[in-house]
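[step 3/7] fold_predict: job queued, chain A
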Amino acid sequence: MMPAPIIGVVGLGTMGLGIAQVYAAAGFKVLATDAHEPARLNALARLRAALEPRVVKGAMTAAALEAIVANLHIVGSPEALGAANLIIEAILETLPAKQSLFAALEAVVSPETVLATNTSSLSVTAIAGGLKHPERVVGLHFFNPAPVMKLVELIAHPDTTKTALTLTRDVTETAGKIVIACPDRPGFIVNRCARPFYGEALALLDEGRSASDIDAAMLAAGYRIGPLSLIDLIGADINLAATESMQTAMHHPRYHVFTALKSQVAAGRLGRKSGQGFVFPDVPEAAPKDAADIALRIEATLANEAAWLLSEGGVTAEGIDKALKLGLNFPRGPFEAAALHGPAQVRMTLERLEAAAPSHLKTRYLPPSA
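[step 4/7] structure written:
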């Protein structure tokens, strides 16, 4: 029997420590490090603090906690990760930092060791560029909090080997995650296909609809949280950065950065973390009479974005639906929503929106076949 793979993790912030916990809880030996010494020194204490409430609640035994902690080994530097078969980086979200780290790791690991990036916004192809063995680089995008969220996006670039993808998928599925393959394109699946959920709500806001009406309509349609309340939860500044990143990468009105979002950030109304958002600290009131029309509009644009991604290849309709449901707790995926409304209804909605769109939003609602 082959020995179990050893997992390496670089970066022990909230995300990196969470990723380390995921694999340690599955019984893998995990070697982890961080350039910031205090993060290394307090990592095990932070892991214990995260797990102890579960022991108190009876959701985990004290022995299970000790087993997880025992599987996590903190090392002094990336150079101490030579024994790892799969190394996942969760460091600063800049291309030079990730390229520099992977170049350093290449000097100490075997050519077969897989290097995985947890990037949420950078090109995996670009991260692999310049390495001696770019074929062993994959994207492995966890969602926060990593121990709780089931979805992990697995991204191959054109040179990634099947062996690297198989190892990464196998160990991550063994750790209890649902792994969905997606293309190396801006936003991957979830962050790209979610843009209309926020964007069309902001368009409605621009047209004079209240934040309460918009969110209440989506709650009435079965969503656990409305789009503007979700911006309040995530942080308007975070949502703005993600939207601007997509607009810079894609240069299309589907990713238009609405003034309402920029104004919210400029005014410091970031949502829950600032105490004031689009909706927060209030909650949506009763759904308006045209709630079904609002939900149809937002779901039609979600379906359109999903259709654009599907048309570009490298992903399936089923994968997109599953990713949106797992990654954002949507009650249905965009293709399921389109089937619910009927293709003709979705098409007519998009045609009506395109006909009425102001000049700066023209082509926003065109389908991929247009």
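[step 5/7] annotate
The mean pLDDT is 96.
The first helix runs from residue 14 to 25.
exit 0
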